[in-house]
Amino acid sequence: MAGSITDVPGIRVGHAQDSKARTGCTVVLAPPGTMGGIAVCGTAPATRELDLLRIDGITREIHAVLLTGGSAFGLDAAGGVLSWLEEHDVGFDAGVARVPLVPTLSLFDLAYGRADVRPDAAMARQACEAATDGEVATGAVGVGTGATVGKLLGMEHCTPSGVGTASARIGDVVIGALAVSNAFGDLVDEKGRIVAGARDPRNPDKFVDTSAYLREHGMPKPDAFANCTFAVVVTNARLDRREANIVASMAMAAFGRAISPAHAPFDFDAVIVLSGGDLSTDLTAIGSIAGDLVDESLIYCGRAR
User: How does strand 194-196 pair with strand 64-68?
Assistant: First the structure.
């Protein structure tokens, strides 16, 4: 499939990062009238405003999504997106002000780079300024700058990950995805081959099969915490909040194909779906394709080192 999330009309993506400190953030700017939905799995969240995407929410539109490093500290970066959007007169009209609505997800990259350097409002503004509807940089950029996978044997034996993206079409309907993986487990391709994961301490050129290791030896490091995988799926098809949540749940199934093991106790995983168009198509088809695109994007995360 290949392609990019920005193949969806109206979607812009921007990255900003500190490559030396190995952290960064990525913003997805949405067109007017965009509706959102979400699926989550896991118990270690660093999030902001995800309730805007709940199936029973009353919010009429979402203006941007921020994916950031820095764990809970990185959530402060959302302020930079809000101020940038406010300056561009984007937000919910609350009568006395326009209030931008920006769901935010933050991954734990503090153990890979510098723990005292995290994305902030200034970095998020840089990402907004850099946002484009053209080609999206992938690999160790933006939120993927400090992403790693394969934490079975500790950070010293993990593998750098990154950002991946893909898109597909059904006639005039376009679906796109962008993903970043900071998972405990390994990333595997469509044939089950490990593309990024825990390295063998005796031979760093080889991977340890995390799932096989767990079956034989159990968990060696009970403090392997603070991992996550995030995906943003966008489409110009018309979805209401209920339908966007259904597509998010279907797309989440891709985590089980691309990550081994998926949804570990140390992971917090999330898929955000944005619908900014008015085209009609089959909901099941969109959900199925969304899962394929997330799968492809996650595999690319492992290959784009």
Answer: unpaired
